[in-house]
Design brief:
With about 100 residues, the chain is mainly β. The chain is about 10% helix and about 25% strand. It is built from one helix and five strands; from the N terminus they run αβββββ. The protein has one helix at about 35-40; strands spanning about 60-65, 70-75, 80-85, 90, 95. The strands form two sheets. Strands 1-2-3 form a three-stranded antiparallel sheet, with no helix packed on it. The radius of gyration is 22 Å and the shape is elongated. The chain starts with about 35 loop residues before the first helix and ends in a 5-residue tail after the last strand.
Length: about 100
């Protein structure tokens, strides 16, 4: 049985053209937030954000956890349920937290 040696692999430089140095935008500061502090922040959102024309009062917040993603919803007096905040970056409808 022979052992693998990196010298045995030849690589065309064209294959590496996608590799670049990270830019400042590639770095994301991660932090831990206490739920009680998040709740204090959520109290600042007093009116519905579901529609630009809805100014009904927010009557409650809901939190949903899927894996490591926390999503916060507001529910207004007219029963609009609005996604207000995500704890992680989203790519389309997928969270990035489990990938980092």
């Amino acid at each position: 049985v022979s052992a693998f040696s990196p010298e045995d692999v030849s690589t065309d430089i064209g294959e590496l053209s996608f590799i670049t140095e990270p830019s400042p935008e590639d770095y994301v500061y991660e932090c831990i937030v206490s739920e009680s502090c998040l709740d204090d922040l959520l109290l600042k959102f007093k009116t519905c954000k579901y529609l630009p024309t809805c100014d009904a009062l927010v009557i409650r917040n809901e939190k949903s956890i899927a894996g490591t993603l926390l999503t916060v919803y507001t529910i207004c007096e007219l029963n609009h349920r609005c996604e207000l905040w995500w704890s992680q970056l989203m790519i389309g409808n997928r969270s990035c937290g489990n990938l980092l």
